[in-house]
Design a protein that fits this description.
Blueprint lengths: L6 H10 L5 H8 L1 H7 L14 E11 L18 E11 L2 E5 L1 H4 L7
Antiparallel strand pairs: 1-2, 2-3
Length: 110
């Protein structure tokens, strides 16, 4: 079952509804997993890898497993509209993913 590609938006529903803070959401999806796995990621600090996601907190999107980068296309929330979109992701400071609607506005992937 594919859940990683929907993880941010699913958890963001809690922040959007005021049940958790955005700060808590970011910590739970970045710092804490990195700490558990002993990775030097999950933080924006000098010397840390520039692995980050640019988020559109006002955007929404419909879950379509056919658009997943993952080979796993099975999801119980197919067709659901979720708040918050991942606009771009960076690994080591380089863009590795640009959402189609942001690419059309001029954001680029190298």
């Amino acid at each position: 079952m594919s859940c990683l590609e929907t993880a941010f938006s699913q958890v963001y529903q809690l922040a959007h509804a005021g049940k958790i803070t955005l700060q808590t959401l970011v910590r739970k999806l970045t710092l804490e997993p990195s700490r558990v796995f002993g990775l030097p990621t999950g933080t924006l600090s000098p010397g840390a890898p520039a692995d980050l996601a640019l988020l559109d907190l006002e955007g929404t999107w419909a879950v379509d497993p056919n658009t997943f980068a993952s080979k796993g296309k099975n999801t119980p929330i197919a067709g659901t509209t979720l708040p918050g979109k991942v606009a771009m992701t960076f690994v080591g400071g380089r863009p590795v993913y640009v959402a189609k609607d942001y690419a059309e506005r001029g954001a680029t992937q190298t």
